[in-house]
Amino acid sequence: MLPLGIIYSLDSQMELVLKPYLENNLNSSLKTVSTPSELKDCIQSSSSTILYLDLRANEFPLEHDDRIEVLSYLRKTCKSPLKIVSVIDQFLLLEFTESAVFLTDAFLEYPPAPEEVRLLAEELQDIKAAVKHATLPESRQIYDRDTHVTTYTPAMIPIIDQISKIARHNVTLLLVGETGTGKTTLASMIHQLSPRNAEPFQNIACGALPSDLIESELFGHLRGSFTGAERTKIGRFEAAGKGTLLLDEIDILSAKDQAKLLKVIETGQFEPVGSTESRVSEARLIVAANVELEELTRNNKFRSDLYYRLNVLQFRLPALRERPNDIIPLTIQFIKECCEQHSITINKVHRKVIQILQHYSWPGNLRELKNQIQRAVLFSNQGELTTDEFSPNILQETMSLSEFGFLASQENSTLADQVALNEKFLLQKSLSENDYRKTATAKALGISRVGLYKKMRKYGMLEQKKPSVSKKHHAESEN
User: Strands of 91-93's sheet, edge to edge?
Assistant: First the structure.
């Protein structure tokens, strides 16, 4: 029995265009459906199905678009194994982007060229049909009044679960992660989810203050207590009242300031600069660091007694490069937030935007992603995001300079051209990173050695050797 190819589209011409190509190259029968109920019946009655899902823009308003129901069905309740091909016209509708990224096995640009369909046929041969909702990454969500966090990253799931439980308890928390990983956002959510949410939330970045002013900023000072103290000022511990105080970049505190902080934690008391009268802190304390405090403690750069006082509950926030499943959902969230903030409408995202966002290393983490999205939205035209709106450094990192120049001038080139160019670049990049060792390269790319050799033969790369002569024999011995 031939595998069934189901075309889900309201475009009656699509079957006429695709049928000659697909039947010849994929050896499958084709059927077109246009309603969710027809699609479900076809899927359930077939043992081998390739679904061609038309995700191009149409004239229907989003609230009446049946594809929302179809995508939800595929993500949550469909129990039949499928291969899904998303049919697009270079752009993905914003509302469909997340589901398309998670569900799609291959993309087909419409109308297709014969070579594109041939490449699609080869790609689908290497893909195993799967029950989609069973293969999608597990997710978690946490909400407060103003924001929400959704993650598809395994390392983030226990963090979300535990924070939901401990937010209401009066216990000191330690958040560790690179700059821009969302420590301030998470601390604010913890405050909002706690019984203290009607009280102030104070946030101080210790690294942004001169070392001689940190004590005054934390504990306040009396008028005349030092040069420039023209008036009495309350510190952040006092300003927080019965609310929450976040001390960010705590790893930069001097030994003197560490000692004073330890006293507040142990006794709940502090003295403003220039005062001998103790005051009581009733704030909940959340501290954050960009580096591991345990390592600083071992190197005698951070007080061990303070570290053990702070390390009641520690959460390590992974860098964005360690959260690949979250990049596109976060991108969509930031696009919507920025559009609302600036009264701009974005309806479509170019497929190459998805590619560069997924391949960039994001050294600035969530903060850098959000800034880049804001830039792109502000520079966007006609409700569309393309690679033109992003910083050149992102484009340059995700492709070689020559390819960057080529792709920048080839926005309308065929999908087959783009797939081949990106695949060749990724092969070259991985070979270089793995010292031209074929086994290591294949493992890094998640393909077999045979698959790697096929792709290298396809792009004329079999004769490539490691540039360094001194290490040539070592590289060849690994092959």
Answer: 91-93, 348-350, 384-385
* Residue given tokens 């910083």 in the structure block: 391
Question: 422-479 has which CATH code?
Answer: 1.10.10
pLDDT at 452: 81
Q: In the prediction, which pLDDT does 463 show?
A: 60
**Among 270, 256, 276, 267, CA closest to 213:** 256
Domain with CATH 1.10.10 in the chain: 422-479
- CA-based nearest residue to 248, from 279, 285, 219: 285
Give pLDDT tens digits for 432-450.
777 677 777 887 887 877 7
Q: What is the DSSP string of 4-20?
A: EEEEE-S-THHHHHHHH
CATH of domain 157-316: 3.40.50.300
Question: Is 29 in contact with 5 (CB distance < 8 Å)?
Answer: yes
What are residue 384's DSSP bridge partners? 348, 381
- Return the CATH architecture of domain 4-135: 3-Layer(aba) Sandwich (3.40)
CATH 3.40.50.300 maps onto the chain at: 157-316
The tokens describing 249, both together, are: 């970049």
Across 135-261, the runs of DSSP E, i.e. the strands, are 140-143, 148-151, 173-176, 201-205, 220-221, 233-234, 244-248
Looking at residue 468, its pLDDT comes to 41
Name the residue with tokens 């290497």. 126
CA–CA separation, 106 vs 127, rounded Å?
9
**What is the rounded average pLDDT of the residues 267-296?**
93
The more confident residue out of 3 and 31 is: 31
